[in-house]
Design goal:
The protein has about 260 residues and is α/β, with parallel strands linked by helices. The protein has 11 helices and 5 strands; from the N terminus they run ααααααββααβββααα. The protein folds into 2 domains: about 100 residues; about 140 residues, Neutral Protease Domain 2 (Neutral Protease, domain 2, Orthogonal Bundle), CATH 1.10.390. A 5-stranded mixed beta sheet has the order 1-2-3-5-4, with helices on one face.
Length: about 260
């Protein structure tokens, strides 16, 4: 194996270039080395002036390196993250740090679906049959599309605007589970569709190799992917939605071109 410093430089180049192969391989190699690489990563993290950085390659590097430390030692990641925040870093940097260090595996139960590891929040009710639903939904996604997704987190609903996120660096997905109803009804069904669609949307980001940020073209690609998979999992609903869209489109054309 190469020296840790060389592997770290390779990982950082991958983060800057958005090279999934470099990031994925380097992360795995450094993770295997464990605690011994943390001082090297710490020196690299504190070589930046985080009070002046808001976005760009440096923010990607922060996300990648701090996430790696968090995988090795959640305690050390929190220590480093808190230290950066205490040094008056930019608010965007602080937000990114908090999103990384607030995830502790002690708060999750884990299980496997195929080759995927699912981390389900212990706060979620077991009556929601989450595992059963996830197995069903993921069965509509090809193995190639799921390849290299490292893990999927399932958490309770939050106050955030988004219901899911995709982290390109670690190829991980976070989904908010809003459907906690034990009884099946129309409202429960619609909430399940919303969560399912969010899952496919985030997988779409992974399939298309998208980067950080709310980029309109990337969101449209992810939406298109989600629609494609939903049409497989809910063919009748897909026909109904397409019919409604066609009716609205027809009525709109008639109103624009009256006789």
């Amino acid at each position: 194996m190469q020296e840790p410093e060389i592997i770290l430089k390779t990982m950082m180049r991958g983060l800057v270039d958005n090279s999934v192969d470099k990031i994925y391989k380097s992360h795995r190699e450094l993770y295997k080395l464990g605690d011994s690489v943390i001082p090297i990563i710490e020196d690299q993290l504190f070589s930046y002036s985080w009070d002046e950085i808001k976005y760009g390659a440096e923010l990607d590097i922060l996300s990648g390196l701090l996430s790696l430390v968090n995988d090795i030692s959640e305690t050390k990641a929190k220590e480093l993250g808190d230290k950066i925040i205490e040094n008056d870093c930019d608010n965007i940097v602080a937000s990114r740090i908090k999103s990384i260090i607030n995830f502790s595996l002690n708060k999750f139960n884990s299980y496997k679906i195929g080759e995927l590891t699912i981390f389900q929040s212990k706060e979620l009710s077991v009556t929601a049959n989450i595992k059963q639903k996830m197995e069903s939904w993921l069965s509509y996604v090809s193995e190639d599309d799921l390849n290299r997704i490292d893990r999927i987190y399932i958490i309770p609903e939050t106050d955030e605007e988004h219901m899911g996120t995709y982290t390109p660096i670690l190829c991980s997905i976070m989904i908010e589970w809003s459907n906690t109803f034990s009884k099946y009804n129309l409202f429960s069904y619609l909430l399940s569709i919303q969560v399912e669609s969010t899952l496919y949307h985030e997988i779409g980001h992974h399939v298309h190799g998208h980067t950080f940020g709310n980029v309109p073209d990337q969101e449209r690609e992810a939406d298109k992917y989600a629609g494609k998979i939903l049409s497989k999992s809910h063919p009748i609903l897909s026909v109904i939605v397409k019919s409604i869209k066609w009716m609205f489109s027809t009525n709109k054309r008639k109103s624009e071109n009256p006789r």
